[in-house]
Amino acid sequence: MTINEYNLDSTGLTNQIKSSMQSLNGSQIILYLRWAGSLLVILSAIGFMMQSHADLLPAYRYWVGLAIVLALCAGGLVCNYVLKELTGARLFFALGAAFLPVQVSQVSAMLYTFVHGTQARQLEYTWLQFADVHPALIAIDIGITAVLLITVSYTSFSMLAKRQVKTLMQAALLGSLGLLLPIRDGYWLPVIITLLFGVLSVIERQFQQDNTMQLAEGVTARALISLPLLILVGRSLLYPISFWLAIVIAAIIATIGIVDAKRYTQSALVIYVGQCLGTLAALSIWPMTVEHFVGISQNLYSLMIPVALVLFALSTQVAYHAKAYRSLGSLLATGLAYAALLDDQAFAPLLALSTGIALVIIGGLKYHEKIPFFLGQLCFLGGILFYCSYVVDAYSNAPWLFSIGLGLVVLMLASILEKKHQSIVKAVGNYLNELKDWR
Asked: Which position among 67, 137, 231, 232 has the lowest Cβ density within 10 Å, counted as fewest Cβ atoms?
């Protein structure tokens, strides 16, 4: 190769590198601009709502939000038909679809105030109060919102995930319907939240089987159908929280943190943090239930046994420290069973016996773990010893009868040992060898 040819090759390679760097920098700049623009729009809209704007009537606040949605849709149309740029069009329509649940929530506030009148539960935040709106205007707002909900959502889902438009539209309409219902009480609201979460969970499992829904566009579409549920939960927390709502929210946090987090990310840190939060939420359900129905007292040892059962149930779902969950559950169950025995609580002996058998079968025989196995035996022994107190009482009343019975038992034991001596020794040896391999 001559010097000139070498120089030409070097120059071409340098030009290719520069071109690649320029292309990369251009793509990054465009990405940053889109993120910045999206954040500006979202934060500006949130700022407008939270500043309350007492000089604006409630209906006008709805129309300002409507103008934002229409402006975003107009931007999407310009990108699609004028600039022929599909990515920007997707972003504009996705933002428009994301603002629609906010509009639905505002119409719901108007409808709720109109239906319940002076008995409506008003929040202290003026930017969330939509009172004194004329019924005709409410009907017009509902009609406009319904039209935009169908058209904008359909357009957005068609651009983001065309194969799943029907399912996405059904989920979006169902979520918006739940958000629109004029319900704020502590009984029906948890029911609505539970139903929406259950439907979204079923739909999410279907989407997990579609590879296109794992792309950025598919993830965005899945996030959009979750917004009504998130707004519904967030809005409910602004009111005094009821027992049933607290239970539902704790169950949702536990499900998302322990079960769902593993499907959405591979990050060990995120999964671990989600597992910790989900565990705390799950463990809080039973104490809240006991406090609500029974009340807090000092004799709750037997009532707290289900907390140990929750730990065992969680050990089948968690990604980390499953053995520690079962060990901690075993220690808790054994301690609570003995505390109930010492406190002479009703059914404490039966509780100790059943808990011991459960620990031996589940922790020992199923998972081959020593801690639950031996603690189960200890718990079972506590129940037996409790019943032995009745034997002691019987001995004090009729010692001769007790001695005869004990003598018969000892004689029978001797006969059994003589006949089954080898089999018993072999069984004990197998038992000890089996325990060596247990964790």
From this structure: 67
Q: Are 69 and 96 in contact (CB under 8 A)?
A: yes
User: What sign does the CA torsion over 110, 112, 113, 114 have?
Assistant: positive
Q: Are 371 and 322 in contact (CB under 8 A)?
A: no
Per-residue tokens: 415: 């006969």
How far are the Cα atoms of 104, 108, 112, 241 from residue 178, in angstroms, in the given order? Answer: 10, 10, 13, 19
φ/ψ region of 344 (left if φ > 0, alpha if ψ in -120 to 50, else beta) reads: left
Residue 314: name the closest of 332, 301, 302 by CA: 332
Virtual CA dihedral for 293, 299, 305, 311, nearest 10 degrees? 80
Percent helix, strand and coil across the chain, each rounded to 5? Answer: 85, 0, 15
Query: What does the pLDDT read at residue 62?
Result: 82
Tell me how crowded residue 149 is: count the other CB atoms within 10 A of its CB. 22
Write out pLDDT tens, residues 338-371: 888 887 776 778 888 888 888 888 877 777 787 8
Tokens of 378: 């200890």
- Whether the Cβ atoms of residue 335 and residue 293 lie closer than 8 Å to each other: no
Inter-residue long-range contacts of 43-52, CB under 8 Å, 24+ positions, other chains counted: 45/99, 45/102, 49/102, 49/127, 50/127, 51/127, 52/125, 52/126, 52/127
pLDDT tens-digit series, residues 377-402:
888 888 887 777 666 666 666 666 66
Q: Exposed (0-12), middle (13-18) or buried (19+): which is 216, by Cβ within 10 Å? A: exposed
Residue entry with tokens 């809005």: 235
Distance of alpha carbon 427 from the chain centroid: 47
Which of 350, 331, 332, 354 lies closest to 341, judged by CA? 350
Going from the first residue of the chain to its last (439 residues), give the mean pLDDT of each consecutive group of 10, the final group possibly shorter. Answer: 49 53 65 86 76 62 86 92 88 92 88 79 65 82 92 93 92 93 85 93 88 86 92 85 90 91 84 92 89 70 80 88 88 84 77 84 76 83 76 64 71 72 62 62
